[in-house]
Amino acid sequence: MDLSVVIPVYNEVETLPFLMEALHKALAPLTATWEVILVDDGSSDGSVKVLETLAAQNPGCVRVVELRRNFGQTTAIAAGIDHAQGEVIVLLDADLQNDPADIPMMLDKLNEGYDVVSGWRVNRQDKLLSRRLPSVLANRLISWVTGVHLHDYGCTLKAYRREVITGFRLYGEMHRFIPAYAKTVGARIVEVPTHHHARRFGKTKYGINRTFKVLLDLMTVKFLSSFANKPIYLFGGMGIGLIIMSVLLVAYLVVMRLAVGEHIIRSPLLLMSTMFFILGAQSILMGLIAEMLARTYHESQNKPTYTVRRVLNPAPSKPENPA
Length: 323
Prior knowledge:
The chain is of the alpha/beta class. The chain has 2 domains: 3-227, Spore Coat Polysaccharide Biosynthesis Protein SpsA, Chain A (Alpha-Beta Complex), CATH 3.90.550.10; 232-300. Helices cover 46% and strands 12% of the residues. The protein has a 7-stranded mixed beta sheet, sandwiched between helices. Helix 1 (16-27) links the parallel strand 1 (3-9) and strand 2. The longest helix has 33 residues, at 268-300.
Protein backbone atom coordinates (compact mmCIF):
# COMPACT_ATOMS: atom_id res chain seq x y z
CA MET A 1 0.00 0.00 0.00
CA ASP A 2 1.40 3.39 -1.01
CA LEU A 3 -0.94 5.80 0.79
CA SER A 4 -3.12 5.67 3.91
CA VAL A 5 -5.46 8.54 4.76
CA VAL A 6 -6.28 8.48 8.48
CA ILE A 7 -9.43 10.34 9.55
CA PRO A 8 -10.70 10.58 13.15
CA VAL A 9 -14.49 10.78 13.27
CA TYR A 10 -16.64 12.11 16.11
CA ASN A 11 -20.31 12.96 15.50
CA GLU A 12 -20.03 13.79 11.80
CA VAL A 13 -23.04 11.85 10.50
CA GLU A 14 -24.06 14.55 7.98
CA THR A 15 -20.53 15.18 6.69
CA LEU A 16 -19.36 11.61 6.06
CA PRO A 17 -21.08 10.97 2.66
CA PHE A 18 -19.70 14.24 1.27
CA LEU A 19 -16.28 13.47 2.76
CA MET A 20 -16.16 10.10 1.02
CA GLU A 21 -17.20 11.65 -2.27
CA ALA A 22 -14.48 14.30 -2.00
CA LEU A 23 -11.86 11.66 -1.11
CA HIS A 24 -12.76 9.52 -4.14
CA LYS A 25 -12.57 12.56 -6.39
CA ALA A 26 -9.13 13.49 -5.04
CA LEU A 27 -7.56 10.03 -4.81
CA ALA A 28 -9.05 8.14 -7.76
CA PRO A 29 -6.76 9.80 -10.36
CA LEU A 30 -3.64 8.76 -8.42
CA THR A 31 -1.52 5.94 -9.80
CA ALA A 32 -0.56 4.98 -6.25
CA THR A 33 -2.54 2.42 -4.29
CA TRP A 34 -4.46 4.00 -1.40
CA GLU A 35 -6.75 3.29 1.52
CA VAL A 36 -8.88 5.36 3.87
CA ILE A 37 -8.87 4.58 7.60
CA LEU A 38 -11.95 6.04 9.33
CA VAL A 39 -11.65 5.89 13.13
CA ASP A 40 -14.92 6.38 15.01
CA ASP A 41 -14.09 7.98 18.36
CA GLY A 42 -17.26 7.00 20.26
CA SER A 43 -19.77 8.90 18.12
CA SER A 44 -23.34 9.11 19.45
CA ASP A 45 -25.17 10.63 16.46
CA GLY A 46 -25.41 7.66 14.09
CA SER A 47 -22.00 8.12 12.48
CA VAL A 48 -21.23 4.42 13.02
CA LYS A 49 -24.12 3.36 10.80
CA VAL A 50 -22.91 5.63 8.02
CA LEU A 51 -19.37 4.29 8.43
CA GLU A 52 -20.66 0.72 8.17
CA THR A 53 -22.40 1.64 4.91
CA LEU A 54 -19.27 3.31 3.51
CA ALA A 55 -17.15 0.27 4.42
CA ALA A 56 -19.64 -2.07 2.73
CA GLN A 57 -19.73 0.08 -0.41
CA ASN A 58 -15.93 0.38 -0.59
CA PRO A 59 -14.52 -2.94 0.66
CA GLY A 60 -11.20 -2.56 -1.13
CA CYS A 61 -10.20 0.92 0.02
CA VAL A 62 -12.11 1.83 3.19
CA ARG A 63 -11.37 0.46 6.65
CA VAL A 64 -13.39 1.47 9.71
CA VAL A 65 -11.95 1.28 13.22
CA GLU A 66 -14.61 1.71 15.91
CA LEU A 67 -13.35 2.65 19.37
CA ARG A 68 -15.35 1.57 22.42
CA ARG A 69 -15.78 5.13 23.73
CA ASN A 70 -14.63 8.68 23.12
CA PHE A 71 -10.86 8.73 23.76
CA GLY A 72 -10.02 12.03 22.06
CA GLN A 73 -8.63 13.07 18.70
CA THR A 74 -5.01 12.18 19.40
CA THR A 75 -5.88 8.63 20.48
CA ALA A 76 -8.14 8.17 17.44
CA ILE A 77 -5.28 9.28 15.17
CA ALA A 78 -2.91 6.87 16.92
CA ALA A 79 -5.39 4.02 16.38
CA GLY A 80 -5.65 4.92 12.69
CA ILE A 81 -1.88 4.97 12.28
CA ASP A 82 -1.63 1.55 13.95
CA HIS A 83 -4.10 0.12 11.43
CA ALA A 84 -2.66 1.91 8.39
CA GLN A 85 -0.55 -0.01 5.85
CA GLY A 86 0.64 2.82 3.60
CA GLU A 87 4.22 3.99 3.21
CA VAL A 88 2.82 7.53 3.32
CA ILE A 89 0.28 8.52 5.96
CA VAL A 90 -1.96 11.55 5.53
CA LEU A 91 -3.98 12.89 8.47
CA LEU A 92 -7.26 14.64 7.75
CA ASP A 93 -10.22 15.96 9.76
CA ALA A 94 -13.68 14.61 8.99
CA ASP A 95 -15.49 17.97 9.05
CA LEU A 96 -14.54 18.89 5.43
CA GLN A 97 -12.96 22.16 6.53
CA ASN A 98 -9.69 20.76 5.18
CA ASP A 99 -9.96 19.96 1.48
CA PRO A 100 -9.04 16.41 0.34
CA ALA A 101 -8.22 17.93 -3.05
CA ASP A 102 -4.97 19.21 -1.50
CA ILE A 103 -3.67 15.67 -0.89
CA PRO A 104 -2.15 15.10 -4.38
CA MET A 105 -0.26 18.40 -4.10
CA MET A 106 1.15 17.33 -0.73
CA LEU A 107 2.21 13.96 -2.15
CA ASP A 108 4.06 15.76 -4.94
CA LYS A 109 5.88 17.75 -2.26
CA LEU A 110 6.90 14.54 -0.49
CA ASN A 111 8.31 13.29 -3.78
CA GLU A 112 10.65 16.30 -3.80
CA GLY A 113 12.51 14.72 -0.87
CA TYR A 114 10.63 15.95 2.18
CA ASP A 115 9.53 13.66 5.01
CA VAL A 116 6.74 15.83 6.42
CA VAL A 117 4.41 18.16 4.52
CA SER A 118 2.37 20.33 6.87
CA GLY A 119 -0.78 22.17 5.81
CA TRP A 120 -1.14 25.90 6.41
CA ARG A 121 -4.69 27.32 6.45
CA VAL A 122 -3.76 30.70 4.97
CA ASN A 123 -7.38 31.89 4.60
CA ARG A 124 -8.81 30.19 7.66
CA GLN A 125 -12.62 30.23 7.81
CA ASP A 126 -13.07 30.31 11.60
CA LYS A 127 -14.05 32.90 14.19
CA LEU A 128 -11.32 35.47 14.85
CA LEU A 129 -11.37 35.83 18.66
CA SER A 130 -12.22 32.28 19.74
CA ARG A 131 -10.25 30.31 17.14
CA ARG A 132 -7.85 32.22 14.90
CA LEU A 133 -6.24 34.63 17.38
CA PRO A 134 -5.48 31.97 20.05
CA SER A 135 -4.15 29.75 17.26
CA VAL A 136 -1.71 32.44 16.04
CA LEU A 137 -0.36 32.96 19.55
CA ALA A 138 -0.09 29.22 20.19
CA ASN A 139 1.71 28.60 16.88
CA ARG A 140 4.31 31.27 17.66
CA LEU A 141 4.89 29.87 21.13
CA ILE A 142 5.19 26.28 19.87
CA SER A 143 7.56 27.32 17.09
CA TRP A 144 9.75 29.21 19.56
CA VAL A 145 9.87 26.37 22.11
CA THR A 146 10.35 23.46 19.69
CA GLY A 147 12.53 25.21 17.10
CA VAL A 148 10.28 23.88 14.31
CA HIS A 149 8.82 27.01 12.75
CA LEU A 150 5.36 26.41 11.32
CA HIS A 151 2.53 28.88 10.83
CA ASP A 152 -0.22 26.36 11.58
CA TYR A 153 0.44 23.51 14.01
CA GLY A 154 -3.32 23.08 14.49
CA CYS A 155 -3.99 22.09 10.88
CA THR A 156 -4.66 18.35 10.95
CA LEU A 157 -3.99 17.98 7.21
CA LYS A 158 -0.41 16.75 7.08
CA ALA A 159 1.45 14.10 5.08
CA TYR A 160 4.17 11.92 6.62
CA ARG A 161 6.51 9.21 5.53
CA ARG A 162 5.79 6.19 7.70
CA GLU A 163 9.30 5.95 9.16
CA VAL A 164 9.09 9.39 10.82
CA ILE A 165 5.67 8.91 12.40
CA THR A 166 5.70 5.39 13.83
CA GLY A 167 8.63 5.61 16.26
CA PHE A 168 6.74 7.19 19.17
CA ARG A 169 3.42 7.04 21.03
CA LEU A 170 0.84 9.82 21.03
CA TYR A 171 -0.88 11.02 24.21
CA GLY A 172 -3.02 13.97 25.31
CA GLU A 173 -3.16 16.57 22.51
CA MET A 174 0.17 15.43 21.07
CA HIS A 175 -1.02 14.99 17.48
CA ARG A 176 -0.37 18.67 16.76
CA PHE A 177 3.27 18.23 17.84
CA ILE A 178 4.07 15.35 15.47
CA PRO A 179 6.26 17.62 13.26
CA ALA A 180 8.35 18.49 16.33
CA TYR A 181 8.74 14.79 17.15
CA ALA A 182 9.62 14.05 13.52
CA LYS A 183 12.29 16.75 13.62
CA THR A 184 14.06 14.87 16.45
CA VAL A 185 14.69 11.97 14.05
CA GLY A 186 15.99 14.28 11.34
CA ALA A 187 12.86 14.65 9.23
CA ARG A 188 12.85 17.22 6.43
CA ILE A 189 9.77 19.40 6.98
CA VAL A 190 8.01 21.83 4.65
CA GLU A 191 4.81 23.83 5.05
CA VAL A 192 2.43 24.43 2.14
CA PRO A 193 -0.71 26.60 1.86
CA THR A 194 -3.92 24.57 1.80
CA HIS A 195 -7.58 25.40 1.27
CA HIS A 196 -9.89 25.84 4.24
CA HIS A 197 -13.68 25.91 4.22
CA ALA A 198 -16.31 27.01 6.69
CA ARG A 199 -18.02 24.16 8.56
CA ARG A 200 -21.14 23.03 6.69
CA PHE A 201 -22.69 20.69 9.26
CA GLY A 202 -22.68 20.27 13.03
CA LYS A 203 -20.57 22.30 15.43
CA THR A 204 -16.88 22.42 16.25
CA LYS A 205 -15.47 20.11 18.92
CA TYR A 206 -12.65 22.51 19.77
CA GLY A 207 -12.88 25.00 22.64
CA ILE A 208 -10.68 27.55 24.37
CA ASN A 209 -10.07 24.98 27.14
CA ARG A 210 -7.77 23.14 24.74
CA THR A 211 -5.25 25.95 25.08
CA PHE A 212 -4.28 24.89 28.58
CA LYS A 213 -3.89 21.25 27.53
CA VAL A 214 -1.67 22.33 24.63
CA LEU A 215 0.56 24.37 26.97
CA LEU A 216 1.06 21.39 29.29
CA ASP A 217 1.75 19.05 26.38
CA LEU A 218 4.22 21.59 24.99
CA MET A 219 6.28 21.26 28.18
CA THR A 220 6.33 17.50 27.69
CA VAL A 221 7.36 17.84 24.05
CA LYS A 222 10.19 20.22 24.93
CA PHE A 223 11.50 17.87 27.59
CA LEU A 224 11.28 14.77 25.38
CA SER A 225 12.84 16.47 22.36
CA SER A 226 15.68 18.21 24.20
CA PHE A 227 16.43 16.20 27.34
CA ALA A 228 15.02 12.69 26.93
CA ASN A 229 18.47 11.21 26.26
CA LYS A 230 20.39 13.45 28.71
CA PRO A 231 17.99 14.51 31.52
CA ILE A 232 20.95 15.34 33.77
CA TYR A 233 21.49 18.47 31.64
CA LEU A 234 18.09 19.81 32.72
CA PHE A 235 17.93 18.69 36.34
CA GLY A 236 21.65 19.11 36.93
CA GLY A 237 21.64 22.57 35.41
CA MET A 238 18.75 23.63 37.63
CA GLY A 239 20.50 22.11 40.65
CA ILE A 240 23.78 23.89 39.99
CA GLY A 241 21.91 27.17 39.48
CA LEU A 242 20.12 26.81 42.83
CA ILE A 243 23.35 25.93 44.66
CA ILE A 244 25.10 28.97 43.14
CA MET A 245 22.21 31.17 44.36
CA SER A 246 22.59 29.61 47.82
CA VAL A 247 26.32 30.36 47.93
CA LEU A 248 25.76 33.94 46.78
CA LEU A 249 23.18 34.52 49.50
CA VAL A 250 25.57 33.19 52.16
CA ALA A 251 28.34 35.40 50.78
CA TYR A 252 26.02 38.40 50.94
CA LEU A 253 25.15 37.63 54.57
CA VAL A 254 28.83 37.34 55.51
CA VAL A 255 29.61 40.67 53.86
CA MET A 256 26.69 42.34 55.67
CA ARG A 257 27.84 40.82 58.95
CA LEU A 258 31.36 42.18 58.53
CA ALA A 259 30.30 45.55 57.12
CA VAL A 260 27.36 46.60 59.29
CA GLY A 261 27.18 43.88 61.93
CA GLU A 262 23.87 42.40 60.74
CA HIS A 263 22.99 39.12 62.44
CA ILE A 264 23.16 36.18 60.03
CA ILE A 265 20.91 33.91 62.10
CA ARG A 266 18.08 36.43 62.26
CA SER A 267 18.02 37.08 58.51
CA PRO A 268 15.38 35.25 56.42
CA LEU A 269 18.00 35.04 53.68
CA LEU A 270 19.78 32.30 55.62
CA LEU A 271 16.66 30.13 55.48
CA MET A 272 16.27 30.91 51.79
CA SER A 273 19.90 29.98 51.16
CA THR A 274 19.47 26.67 52.97
CA MET A 275 16.31 25.91 50.98
CA PHE A 276 18.04 26.70 47.66
CA PHE A 277 20.96 24.42 48.56
CA ILE A 278 18.67 21.50 49.50
CA LEU A 279 16.53 21.95 46.36
CA GLY A 280 19.68 22.13 44.22
CA ALA A 281 21.07 18.91 45.68
CA GLN A 282 17.72 17.17 45.20
CA SER A 283 17.52 18.37 41.59
CA ILE A 284 20.96 16.93 40.82
CA LEU A 285 19.96 13.61 42.41
CA MET A 286 16.75 13.59 40.35
CA GLY A 287 18.86 14.15 37.25
CA LEU A 288 21.03 11.16 38.08
CA ILE A 289 17.95 8.98 38.62
CA ALA A 290 16.44 10.20 35.35
CA GLU A 291 19.75 9.47 33.61
CA MET A 292 19.62 5.87 34.87
CA LEU A 293 16.00 5.55 33.67
CA ALA A 294 16.92 6.90 30.23
CA ARG A 295 19.77 4.39 29.90
CA THR A 296 17.51 1.56 31.07
CA TYR A 297 14.89 2.60 28.51
CA HIS A 298 17.34 2.48 25.62
CA GLU A 299 19.37 -0.54 26.67
CA SER A 300 16.47 -2.78 27.79
CA GLN A 301 14.77 -2.37 24.39
CA ASN A 302 18.02 -2.30 22.43
CA LYS A 303 16.76 1.06 21.19
CA PRO A 304 19.45 3.10 19.38
CA THR A 305 20.13 6.72 20.30
CA TYR A 306 20.38 7.68 16.63
CA THR A 307 18.40 7.30 13.41
CA VAL A 308 19.80 6.46 9.96
CA ARG A 309 18.36 8.01 6.81
CA ARG A 310 20.19 5.65 4.40
CA VAL A 311 23.40 3.66 3.95
CA LEU A 312 25.39 3.75 0.73
CA ASN A 313 27.17 0.50 -0.17
CA PRO A 314 25.89 -1.34 2.91
CA ALA A 315 27.80 -4.32 4.25
CA PRO A 316 26.42 -7.70 3.14
CA SER A 317 24.22 -9.45 5.66
CA LYS A 318 25.84 -12.19 7.68
CA PRO A 319 24.92 -15.74 6.65
CA GLU A 320 22.85 -17.69 9.13
CA ASN A 321 24.59 -20.42 11.08
CA PRO A 322 23.76 -23.89 9.70
CA ALA A 323 21.46 -25.96 11.89
